[in-house]
């Protein structure tokens, strides 16, 4: 019996000043790019990526200033979409990706889809028109009641005022969500069901 390669591998792309760190599952098939929201990181996608198995090539990216990716002075959504396109093209999968965006990651996913070939776009928990003013306000907005206890560790926000300032321009084009709508992390409520939805888009 031959040893199996690890299902998740970690990689870095770019120079030290604009480095993006990402995890990858699967080596073949259509790329699926998973983008987290402000104050989270790529680990929020681990339960869903594990459910997707080897049916596609899954990439979960740390946005600049999050997780292990380098912080940038100011984050331009179009420039970051360009960096993301270069990363995806460098994987040599030769297929348009499926983009999945959570929170502010939905804005990046939309900018990518507007500029580059995209198979499908799935967004959820889209941000409000105004950024949160404090860690307490940000935490109060999260609805974790429906997230099973083992998955709540993947929905832990790490507040950082410098990161908030570097993304401040992203909020100028946001639409205010419907009254009563709160981030509810559907991908963590049932990772298997969410992965099935993504698989249908592949």
What is shown here, in short?
This protein has 202 residues and is α/β, with parallel strands linked by helices.
Write the topology of this structure.
Layout: E1 8-13, E2 20-25, E3 31-35, H1 46-52, E4 57-61, H2 77-89, E5 98-102, H3 105-115, E6 120-124, H4 135-141, H5 161-166, H6 186-189, H7 191-201
Parallel strand pairs: 3-4, 3-5, 5-6
Antiparallel strand pairs: 1-2, 2-4
Helix pairs in contact: 1-7, 2-3
Classify the beta-strand content into a percent band.
15-25%
- CA radius of gyration is 16 Å
Q: Unreliable segments (pLDDT under 50, ≥5 consecutive)?
A: none
Q: Domains counted in the coordinates: how many?
A: 1
Biggest sheet strand line-up: 1-2-4-3-5-6
Mean pLDDT: 89
Roughly how many Å apart are the termini? 32 Å
Report the major sheet: 6 strands, mixed
For the record, the CATH architecture stands as: 3-Layer(aba) Sandwich
CATH superfamily: Alpha/Beta hydrolase fold, catalytic domain
CATH fold topology = Rossmann fold
What does it look like?
The protein has 202 residues and is α/β, with parallel strands linked by helices. The protein has one domain (8-201): 3-Layer(aba) Sandwich (Rossmann fold), CATH 3.40.50. 29% of the residues lie in helices and 16% in strands. A six-stranded mixed β-sheet has the order 1-2-4-3-5-6, sandwiched between helices. Helix 2 (77-89) crosses helix 3 (105-115). The chain is globular, with a radius of gyration of 16 Å. The mean pLDDT is 89. GO terms for molecular function: hydrolase activity. Residues 32-185 form the AB hydrolase-1 domain. InterPro entries: AB_hydrolase_1, AB_hydrolase_fold, AB_hydrolase_sf.
